[in-house]
Automatic annotation (TrEMBL):
It holds the Pfam family RLMM_N. The active site is at K300. SUPFAM superfamilies: S-adenosyl-L-methionine-dependent methyltransferases. One of its GO terms (biological process) is rRNA processing. This is Ribosomal RNA large subunit methyltransferase M. GO terms for molecular function: S-adenosylmethionine-dependent methyltransferase activity. It is an enzyme of class 2 (transferase). Its main location: cytoplasm. Residues 181-274 form the Ribosomal RNA methyltransferase FtsJ domain. It comes from Pseudomonas laurentiana. The keyword rRNA processing applies. It comes from the Bacteria.
Amino acid sequence: MNTLFMHCRPGFEGEVCSEIAEHAARLNVAGYAKAKPQSACAEFICNDAEGAERLMRELRFSQLIFPRQWARGSFVELPETDRISVLLEALVEYPVCGSLWLEVMDSNDGKELSTFCRKFEGPLRKALLNAGRLVEDAAKPRLLLTFVSGRRVFVGLAAADNSAMWPMGIPRLKFPREAPSRSTLKLEEAWHHFIPRDQWPQRLSDDMTGVDLGAAPGGWTYQLVKRGMLVTAIDNGPMAESLMDTGLVQHLMADGFTYKPKQTVDWMVCDIVEKPARSAALLETWLGEGLCREAVVNLKLPMKQRYAEVRRLLERIEEGFKARKVKVSIGCKQLYHDREEVTCHLRRLDMKPR
Ligand SMILES: C[S@@+](CC[C@H](N)C(=O)[O-])C[C@H]1O[C@@H](n2cnc3c(N)ncnc32)[C@H](O)[C@@H]1O
């Protein structure tokens, strides 16, 4: 069980390797990271048997940027028939688990395997329950079986409260028909990821105000309006009429990089395609000057050294807040709906509640 297995967006395997290797070095966990390009997964092989467990204990999954899911365990080769007996045998080495997810990679191979997984899950679950390897208990580890082929599976464990919220880290969000653009799902996913569900009523409430920079046609504004907020939408482009008809949106044709609200707003969101350093500076200004209490902003990724560049920008933002003596929590994740970008969430921790 010395391997930490991680899922990611295809093409970002190198970023996952850099990120986990950096954390492992900091935590003195000896080992090495490896990944095949476009495989949508990466592994960190630890030298010591308890290395992977230590990584999972010391790190919060939600704070990792590029991994979409993780599990510690090892690979098991499966026969063509009676895979269940072989899995039951392998699981003798594992603790009794509290839930079971069957996962595949987010790749073409993975898509083909998902039909197999759907058929296999029922009989496997039954066999695990009968053998006492699975009980319904959220406090027990989650058993994550990642099929890389019908003959090879990574048998992994992860704490349910320190791993992805959805199988493979892929949220099941329904596109709202009334929303003016598919981007709407990005902001909805960001909220799921960055804001605990039980805090939604206080932090996304209908007495709040928001500014959406680069708002047209209005997918992100739609999310704010859906929560009942009064929104100032900044964009030279046109906003969807359906949103303007709600009476909750003021549309200003202005530059999102120079606009400032007259009063502190609860939310600033920004989906402008710009150089990441410019978006990072925008975040520093808005949070640093107290123009908003919370923000969600996309950072477009550079072509190379994507992990290193994101880290550098986050450190620069952090230093900016330190110099201004303001307390801000900073989160950053490549969400499922992100492509060549990551999503940042920032929150002022030292401002009086409204
Ligand atoms: C990716 S789109 C935003 C999509 C939007 N979030 C949605 O969900 O419908 C980017 C928008 O940023 C706007 N934009 C680009 N540069 C801008 C700037 N400097 N100030 C304001 N808006 C800008 C563009 O006009 C475009 O509408």
